Amino acid sequence: MAAKKHKARKARARVTGRRERERGRHRAEILDAAEAIMMEKGIHGTSMQDIASRADFAVGTLYKFFPAKDELYACLFEEKVKEIWGMIKRALGSASEPLDRIERLIEVSTDVAVKYGGFFQIYMSETAGTFMVRPMTIPSLKKRHKRFEKLVAGILAEGMERGLIRRMDLRYAAMGLIGLQRGLNAMWVDERKRDIESEELTEMAKNAFFGGMLTEEGKRLKSSARGRISTTNLAAQGSEQ
Question: Burial, 159: exposed, middle or buried (Cβ in 10 Å; 0-12, 13-18, 19+)?
Answer without folding.
Answer: buried
